[in-house]
Amino acid sequence: MQKKVLIIGAKGMLGQELVSVFKKDKDFKVTAWDREDIDITDQKQASEKISELAPSVIINAAAYNAVDQCEKDKAEFEKAKDLNVKAPGYLAKIAKKLDATLVHYSTDYVFSGMPDIPEPEGCAGSCGSCTLHEGFIPQLGFREDALAEPVQKYGKSKLMGEENVMKNGERYYIIRLSKLFGKPAKADGAKRSFFDVMLEVGKKAEKSKAEVKVVDEETSCFTYAPDLAKKTKEIIEAEKPYGIYHVFNEGACTWYEAVLELYKQAKIKAKVVPVGSDEFPRPAQRPYVSTFLNTKLNPMRSWKLALREYLKNK
User: Fold this and answer.
1) CATH number of the domain encompassing residue 73
2) Nearest C-alpha neighbor of 152 from the set 252, 65, 75
3) Helix or strand holding residue 52 (H, E)
4) Separation between Cα atoms, residue 295 and residue 6, nearest integer Å
5) In this predicted model, what pLDDT tens digit does every residue of 30-63 receive, in sequence order?
6) Domain span at residue 101?
7) What total of structural domains would you count in the chain?
8) Stated pTM of the model
9) 84-117 as b/e, with b when 16 or more CB fall inside 10 Å?
């Protein structure tokens, strides 16, 4: 018997990959809805439509992600709270009523940017004659259970959404991703990925012999949408314990380091110049370091390999 899967936000960058991955498997019957099919901020409508469909898995790939607009505009922050906070809570209640599994996506922006620096095992904090630190390279980043302290309104809305899912749900996976990239979304007005933007910038700069200034800060990881879609299916099929998961392509980097690799692979000869974040002032503060640590899943391939596939498919 086929398992019914409902994918919400089906025309987004991630949503379209989820639809593709699940439709390839005959064990799943996929229903793909976007904003014209359902308003998940309307609790009554969402409950009626989803209850009638009665899926066994609900995947919520819809979200508000205009980070700077959310920070500077009260009306935009209200939109963020509707889609990122209230809607996940409604979906958690619906999933619980239907005894369905809910998958909800969150972000590295729930973190402050100041991860704890781990000490070697056995360290007592007294370094008089200790040799434990010799050759020890700490893994810097945030575990799934790390304290979430967002530094901007967008991150706060996503954290409140996580809390709403945990409060109202029962069988749920909260999957945090970071710097999503992949094929452009089919949805109108969708945000373009960083790599899409920087490819365009690089090609223009190459022709005009201009420099490309890129922020050499904000260290984190990239998540390739097709890999995330496959990993989501893997988590569901393996019946992993419910809770929070970090899904990202291996390897951390700054924006500047990412552009160097992008132009190297794309053979774009524009000159790339590292700058501080003060060169491009933005309303919303970004975490200085928001690198994920993964303690629950098999690691995914490196972001550089994923980038190679992304460029090949453009």
Assistant:
1) 3.40.50.720
2) 65
3) helix 43-53
4) 28
5) 999 999 999 999 999 999 999 999 999 999 999 9
6) 3-122+130-312
7) 1
8) 0.93
9) bbbbbbbbbbbbeebebbbbbbbbbbbbbbebee
